[in-house]
Structures are given as structure tokens and as C-alpha cells.
Amino acid sequence: xxxxxxxxxxxxxxLVLIVSGTTAGISSAxxxxxxxxxxxxxxxxxxxVSGVKYTCTTNPAGTPAGLTWTLSTCFDADKAYKSTKAQxxxxxxxxxxxxxxxxxxxDASKHSIDVxxxxxxxxxxxxxxxxxxxxxxxxxxxxxxxxxxxxxxINAKISADTTKRDxxxxxxxxxxxTLAAKYTATQIAGWEASTSTTSGNADVNVQNFGLWxxxxxxxxxxxxxxxxxxxxxxxxxANFQSKLTKAQEQVDSMTTRYNxxxxxxxxxxxxxxxxxxQALLVRKAACKAGL
Length: 291
Fold this sequence. Notes:
Blueprint: H1 3-6, H2 8-21, H3 28-33, E1 46-49, E2 52-58, E3 67-71, H4 72-123, E4 127-133, E5 140-145, H5 147-180, H6 185-193, H7 204-286
Antiparallel strand pairs: 1-2, 2-3, 4-5
Helix pairs in contact: 2-4, 2-7, 4-7, 5-7
């Protein structure tokens, strides 16, 4: 509770002292003409009776209407009441604004979750190119529906190409052994380094050696590219899931904060409201006519 609220109690105590001692030492004539609530003029006129100051003004409590003699303690009580009332109003406004901001954050995160789920669903209905049909002219793309199907198709192609690559490697190595019986290691190494030199060679084994080297390299390159494609495809659901997890954590965190704010609001509001109500009672007593 603020220092302003803690002052309400002492203010009430001071009022009791003033109310009980206001008429001490005042003559009957003065008491009859200058009392709180008695009509007066002109505005802002000031009278002091037995050390008690009265001002001709509108009573902060609103009654009686018009210009009346008003005690300074009435002004003090009114100031204390307005301060505590402003604190209560500010609290209500602040809480409303805070709750609205938290709710907006929750709604935004929930919307993100919906969008991400839509993206995940779309990935399962999207067409993906997993290869090309070279048996037709022009070459036609081979497609499948859904990211899981695409990954499965590419994995199947990797498996098939791996078998073909390994078979090409065996053929290459077998011919190399045959060539080793006829040619030097330097000659064989030269053909391995530059297979283009094998195509015009008079020896069919040398030509085939170059063909199998190129076949092995082609399959190996295709496998490498396919593995990269799978890695890229696998990033899609992984990225969606990562963002989905963060969005859900945000919703859970903000929901906990929102519920905590809702739960604590009544008690906090009542504490401040009680101080404001007490200050209102103090003002009512301090501004009462007849003092």
C-alpha cells in the first residue's frame, strides 16, 4: 500500500481531534455565524475563529450547495480522498490494459500455431519433384504428393543408385585388374584421372574402364545430390516443429501469467478500494455541516 493510503488513518484521527475541539473558545455569536456549511460571501473570504481557519468556498463534499464556510481539514480530507480514488482508478485501468495486452499476446501466439499447423498440413499435400523421366521427350519431372512421400521416394532412389554405383565400382575394379597385367600403374592412373582419354583407345578394356569410372562417378554424384535434397526436405517439418514448440511455450507462459493476474486482481483491488472508501468516510465527516 502506498504512503498516501497509509495517511488516511492519521487524517481521520486528526479530524476527530479538530471536530471535538472546534468550538473551544468561540463566542456564541461567532459560532452562530461562522460554522461549516453556513452560507457566506464573498468567495475565498477567510475567517479564523479561535485558531480554526474557515474559507468561503464550495464544500468539496458537495453539500450544502453554493458558497459556505469550509474548514481546512475538509480540504485536506478531500485531497486525501481524491488521491486514493485516483490510485484505485489507475489500478483498474492499468489492470484492464495489462490483461488486454497479455490476452492479445496469447491470441497472437495461438494464431501463429494455427498458421504453422496449416503449413505442416500443406507440406503433406504439396507436389514435390523427386526425379526426371528421361525416356520421354521432353524430359518430364517425376512428382509425388506430400513431403513424407517425397522423402521416401528419394530414399528409394538413393538405395537403387547405391546398388548401381557399387556394381559399376566392381566392374571398374575388375577391369583395372585386367589392365594391370598389360599396362603400367602410371598409364592406368592417367586414365583414372582423365577418362576422356580412354574413349579413343584401341583397347576395348581401356574404353570400358573409362565408362565404368564415369558411371560410378555419375551415380555417386546423384546419391550426394539426393542426400542433400532429403536434408533440405527434413528441415521443413523440423523448422515447423521448432516454431510450433516455441509458440506453444509462449501461449502456456502467457496463459499462466494471465490467470495469475486474474486471480490476484480482486484482492489487490479490494485493498485499494477499502482505502478509498475509508478516505471518503473521512471526507464526509470532515466536511459535515455544523463543525
